[in-house]
Amino acid sequence: MLLTRNDREAPPREGAGRGVEVGISFPFLAAPPAEVLRGEAYLEGASHALGWPGAEALRAYLPGVVPSRVYVGSETCERLLPTAQALGSWISAARRGRVAISLVLPPLTRDGLTKAEAAVRAVEGVNGVEGFEVVAGDWGTVHRLRSRHPGLVIVLGRLTHKMLRDPRLAEYFDSPQAPMPARAALCRSGELAPGFRALMERYGIGRREVDPFLQPLEADEWGNRSEKLSVHLPYLFVTMGRACLLGAMHREPDGKFLPGAPCRLECRKHAVEFRLPVPGGNGAEKKLLSLGNAYYHAVPSSVTGRILGLLPSCRQVDRIVVTIPESQGRRG
Hints:
This protein is an alpha/beta fold and 332 residues long. The chain has eleven helices and 14 strands. It has a single domain, classed as TIM Barrel. The strands form three sheets. The protein has an eight-stranded parallel β-sheet, with helices on one face. A four-stranded antiparallel β-sheet has the order 10-13-12-11, with no helix packed on it. Strands 1-2 form a two-stranded antiparallel ribbon.
């Protein structure tokens, strides 16, 4: 169920919610945002502040919706794993605001996996945490958590969805001029293959997250699945690395961009925007947003409209996750 601005439940596929749950992700926020946890319509103000072209389409499709879930943690950097104390703060606030919590885990090292398990145990040790789930960013984490926490709800994170992501190229594969084999290959993944279906069943995964890809995915990618789908907006994940641009700014040249090097969590306060020329030399460019050790692209309103247009007919897509990259001290 979703709550409207007037604190009424919206029945599935009716009213403000239209049967679609809305979550907000705060990958760089260390403490719970008061607006969301008071049940206010933070989605409208936050998406407007982002300057996101598709925000108006989302507000029109889901008018007055109040997010019913918050995402805690970074999908790309284990240094942003919340501590047990921080999670306790989120849990207490979530109870007051009647929202569920998703703990987001990046691809993890062995040390990171140990810390992630400690975070999971901290939540499991608290009574009355409703709707708790873990978003896993790699299959090793899925295996470890399912082996040791058999009752845990595990969501397969979007970093594991293998598709073409380069915003300078992806949209060309929807062009009539593109060869049909290329269009077919790059507008679908291998996730409908029997082997992948068996893997999802083996680990009991009932939900997977996907990106707002610039190229339109084939219809089977949306509807021919047993699991539910969560679609991220407005940012398409492009790529990530073990070194961080922002974290290397203060270091000497011979110490920059070293995997595992110490940082000051500069990502909590700063972001960098790149403008990349599109191949072809016509002067067009694509923007990349560097958030910590990852790069994202804000999709245009046409992509947002295409995804929202799927919702009435594709019952597998029942959640939208809106990322708010700002934290205190940083502008969007």
